[in-house]
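Entry:
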Amino acid sequence: SLSLSLSPLPVLDMVWVYTIAFLATFLVLQPRTSTSNILSPFLSPFVDDVCKKVECGRGTCKPSPNSTFLFECQCDPGWKQARPDHDDGLKFLPCVIPNCTLDYSCTEAAPPVQDKESQAHESIFDPCRWADCGGGTCNKTSLFTHRCECREGYNNLLNVTAFPCFNECMLGMDCSSLGITVMNKSTSSSPGLADKASSISRGNINWLIIAALSLAPVLWR
């Protein structure tokens, strides 16, 4: 599988990250009307630059000034996020789940759906709280990053370690139209996704924003 090299975030990136995290918390605590009126001019440069720091997997980052997170991931055709369809609050998640025929009955693994209850014991600052590894185990590799360690018989989707683990028997014939074929650990990752996985591994702003917004309800009380 693809091995990831980790490096510390540059100082300027860290300043940018914490600034966005602070703004995200501030936005949650403000009424929507006052937020748009007071912060609109100030947030403009951050909204314009936010997608330079975000990785959406098989999707595209779109700035969203009206969103608390300032961005959303819009999935490519055939891909979706690991969230319930009705949960619009998680549109910041990367697009790593194929929207094709998946047969989970052939394995013991549960469908790759984000299970918040089973992850309730994890810190909100732990990236594994928000990761979906399918038939694998999430391994925190840094404050911001994770990799999916697959169980025997499973491999990372598209051979990218930031993607969930699937068994070959799960994949329907229509999955091949998404570029998904038989996976094995000796196969190189799909073109273009190796760089994306490295980008994910270096820790984009997602986790800090998530943490800030998760703390907001506590502060609100």
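Residues 1-12, 32-36, 194-221 have pLDDT under 50 and may be disordered.
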